[in-house]
Known about the structure:
By secondary structure, the protein is α+β, with helices and mostly antiparallel strands. About 65% of the residues lie in helices and about 10% in strands. The radius of gyration is 41 Å and the shape is rod-shaped.
Amino acid sequence: PRLDGMGPFDPALGLGLAALLLGGMRLLPFVLAGEMAGPLLHAASPLALAAAIVQGGVTVLAWGAAALALRRWADPRLGAQRDLVALILGATLAALVSAAAECGARLWVEGLSPALLPWSCLLRGWISDMIGVLVLTPLVLANRSLPLAPSRGAVVEAAGQGVVAVGLLWLLFRLPSAANLQLYDLLVLPAIWVAVRFGVRGASIINVVVQIGIVAAVTAQAMEPDDVVLYQFRMLVLTLTTLVLGVAVAERRRAEHELRQRQDQLARCSRLSLAGEMAAALAHELNQPLSAALTYARAAQRLFDQAGADPARLRAALDGAADQAERAGLIIRTLREFIGRGAIDRQPHAVAAVIRDALALVASEAERAGIRIDVACDRAIPSLAIDSVQIQQVLVNLLRNAIEALEPRGGARRVVSVVAVPDGSGGAEVEVADSGPGLDADAAARLFQPFSTTKPSGMGLGLAICRTIIEAHGGRLWLAGNGPGGCSFRFTLPAPAGEWE
Ligand code: ADP
């Protein structure tokens, strides 16, 4: 029996499936009407009419079931390989059922026994349904929305791909021999180019272009049905290749995009936590000058109330209060700038001067506790480009920690030493050591973590901030020595490369 006359592919089915996937099952009647209209209008006999109704019903039921399953278990955006595999599987099964319905209807109309069902009929029906769906359904699914503002480069590249594909098609049409239809395999080159660059969107568009070319060539050359099937299989392979490639490219792009987003988030988080640390540090650092200012102010009040008090002492107390208030302001300003710019204000400073300034700020505390502070600063240390207020801050923190470690201890040796030496490469290395009790292993391990403290009123931020400041200067801060004889901290201040002589 002759069972030819089937088109090389069936576009209505591909568009119908896309409509069901996007619009839902309520569109089923419209898909049914689209599928039935042609056969109903062209039916030559009541038998043919009945066959067409049965065939259309079975076809739409099969594709409706496929759409239902795909809507349930796959994402119609075809964003991942598993969605594409689901589409291929669903299409394979539904195309088998609809091809069987079509062949059955023909056998029925022509009064042949089902045992005569030729496999070639089934194969041709199946492949033309498969191609119709795999070429057109992804076209609709992947291109539902236009890309937002494509870049100029992308537009130029897409135009280039279009020129290559259409030029190749034109060339193939101009070639005289029918054997040259094999050269259609060349179309795989622009197809892969498009899929690699434009993902599943591009793949679905180039598949339509290639398919149109092949249909035109097959029609123009009035090919034998068995030859048509051969080209349909090539088309199927090409379609699957470009779709799989396109989805892989889209998946990788999405993964890269997600990675970038996550990195951005991380950067934002760490900036926020730095700002949080800074805010806590501000509270920590301001506490000292503010309470010192309060002490000076109270002293001034007492002197003021005393009859015959020494005006010079009153003046000194007021100066002390003013100095401390000024220092509080400076701390706020520096920290605000540090957060705002994320940078440090490097100016050339003598390390000895910075140490001297820091000592002046803790001198009264040390004196009260009966602690001697020894300083040894090597003259060979050059001026360094540093933020003096911040380095002062580091020294004050280390010195205050040392003083607080010594305070509760009695005994003769209550000494803190500050030693600064050149580091051998144009910078300096500074050590702050005490003769206190040292640290236990647990405390030493968590030393630089924010909020780790052993002090009842401590915040555990001092050393964390110190390390941040030293690292922002390109240096390191570490626990250099620890034992029952006391502990020592060291930090380096490297010379910034080529900035200062
Ligand atoms: P805070 O001083 O607010 O507690 P720090 O970060 O300055 O926070 O110090 C964390 C902890 O490290 C302190 O609570 C203390 O236990 C320990 N520590 C720091 N310096 C010394 C030191 N010189 N001797 C002994 N312990 C120290």
